[in-house]
């Protein structure tokens, strides 16, 4: 895992250096833009860096080159490097900025108060407005400012990604990686729309479609962009063959589904001290997840109706959250989701068992699969 640890450190250093480079640009426009940099720095600190890691190991899976000694450079300070590894690190860093943009937008739509134990970006802007005694609505200002921050981060992720792929000599490799990145952006955006659609229009669709619709949200909002796309981008940066890309996709998609199913369990039952989010946050936000779809099908009619009535109530009390948690657990929904997680991990691992990828990458992907499926935050 030393190689993965070094990559995470490189990505953090690269992100810090990228923001150092962008800060004078923003402040030359106005010192009032300092919060854009400050809030972004906080958002990009830490995190599990799954997307960066899967991008790197997707590349390693097809390059098969041991690189521990080569992971000793500054990905920003040496922009003239033509090293393919440098390109991969920049692309991995771009994925982390893209993820940050998605989190900012997601927190606005979910009206979330916190992110990684800190106030969400829109809440920080809201507090800035309130403390500064500006006119108008603090909430409206906070949401508008955070929306713009998220848009800025999307643009920055594109800039960093392009700076990486331009280091590659082969135009077809650059084009393939860029196409995958573009597809990922589209899928996340439409998946996010499907998520908020399910929260508000779920009762307009046939009862029997609830589970399949929740599964579709998982695939497009999270599974593809969390694991499958980063793996494919990394592999394409390495000039992967179609069979290699297919094997990595067949690994990445079911593992991405397991990743989001674990996230859904944590959104209802997670410890706030480790998740950085309030207990039962998904219940207050009204998330129509696979967990909820399974629970609704298993609960008696009166209990299912009560779940529908309370789900999405931002003012749920601690006692109500605990009552809903007990209902969801006691009806067997949690055990069923755990079984689905285990099934998807098995499918993912089977996909790379005999895949034409490097042995070193295969070992790391197996370890990452366990980490993703068993994580507690």
What's a concise summary of this model?
With 377 residues, the chain is mostly helical. The chain contains 16 helices and two strands. Strands 1-2 form a two-stranded antiparallel ribbon.
Textual characterization of the structure:
With 377 residues, this protein is mainly alpha-helical. It has one domain: Farnesyl Diphosphate Synthase (Orthogonal Bundle). It is built from 16 helices and two strands. The chain has helices at 2-29, 34-43, 50-63, 84-110, 121-132, 138-165, 171-201, 210-237, 242-269, 272-275, 281-285, 290-298, 301-310, 318-330, 333-353, 359-374, and strands at 114-115, 118-119. A two-stranded antiparallel ribbon has the order 1-2. Strand 1 (114-115) and strand 2 (118-119) form a beta hairpin. Helix 8 packs across helix 9 (242-269) and helix 12 packs across helix 15 (333-353). The mean pLDDT is 93.
* N→C terminal distance: 20 Å
CATH superfamily grouping:
Farnesyl Diphosphate Synthase
Q: Report strand order across the widest sheet.
A: 1-2
- How many domains, as an integer? 1
CATH class: Mainly Alpha
Identify the overall geometry.
globular
Rounded to an integer, what's the Rg over CA atoms?
21 Å
Mean pLDDT: 93
Which architecture per CATH? Orthogonal Bundle
Q: How helix-rich are the residues, as a percent range?
A: over 70%
Derived structural class: mainly alpha
Series of secondary-structure elements, N-terminal to C-terminal: HHHHEEHHHHHHHHHHHH
Low-confidence stretches: none
Number of strands: 2
Assign the CATH topology: Farnesyl Diphosphate Synthase
Given the structure, what is the number of helices? 16
Q: What portion of the residues fall into strands of 2 or more residues?
A: under 5%
| Biggest sheet overview | 2 strands, antiparallel
């Amino acid at each position: 895992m030393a190689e993965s640890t070094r990559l995470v450190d490189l990505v953090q250093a690269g992100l810090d250096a990228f923001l150092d480079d962008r800060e004078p640009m923003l402040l030359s426009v106005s010192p009032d833009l300092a919060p854009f940099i400050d809030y972004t720095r906080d958002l990009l600190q830490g995190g599990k860096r799954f997307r960066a890691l899967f991008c790197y190991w997707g590349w390693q899976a097809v390059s098969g080159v041991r690189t521990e000694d080569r992971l000793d450079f500054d990905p920003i300070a040496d922009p003239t490097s033509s090293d393919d590894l440098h390109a991969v690190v920049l692309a991995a860093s771009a994925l982390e900025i893209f993820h940050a943009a998605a989190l900012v937008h997601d927190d606005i739509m979910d009206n979330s108060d916190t992110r990684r134990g800190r106030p969400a970006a829109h809440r920080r802007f809201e507090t800035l407005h309130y403390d500064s005694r500006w006119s108008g609505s603090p909430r409206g200002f906070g949401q508008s400012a955070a929306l713009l921050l998220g848009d800025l981060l999307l643009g920055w992720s594109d800039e960093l990604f392009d700076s990486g792929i331009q280091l590659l000599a082969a135009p077809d490799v650059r084009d393939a990686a860029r196409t995958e990145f573009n597809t990922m952006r589209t899928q996340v955006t439409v998946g996010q729309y499907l998520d908020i659609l399910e929260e508000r229009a779920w009762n307009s669709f046939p009862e029997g479609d609830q589970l399949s619709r929740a599964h579709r949200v998982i695939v497009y909002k999270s599974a593809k962009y969390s694991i499958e796309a980063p793996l494919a981008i990394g592999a394409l940066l390495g000039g992967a063959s179609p069979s290699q890309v297919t094997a990595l996709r067949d690994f990445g998609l079911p593992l991405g589904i397991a990743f989001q199913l674990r996230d859904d369990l944590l959104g209802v039952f997670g410890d706030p001290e480790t998740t950085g989010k309030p207990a039962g946050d998904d219940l207050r936000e009204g998330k129509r997840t696979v967990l909820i779809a399974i629970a609704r099908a298993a609960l008696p009619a009166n209990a299912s109706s009560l779940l529908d009535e309370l789900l999405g109530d931002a003012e749920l009390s601690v006692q109500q959250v605990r009552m809903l948690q007990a209902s969801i657990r006691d009806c067997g929904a949690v055990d069923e989701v755990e079984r689905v997680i285990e099934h998807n991990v098995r499918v993912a691992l089977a996909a790379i068992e005999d895949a034409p990828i490097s042995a070193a990458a295969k070992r790391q992907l197996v370890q990452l699969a366990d980490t993703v499926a068993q994580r507690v935050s």
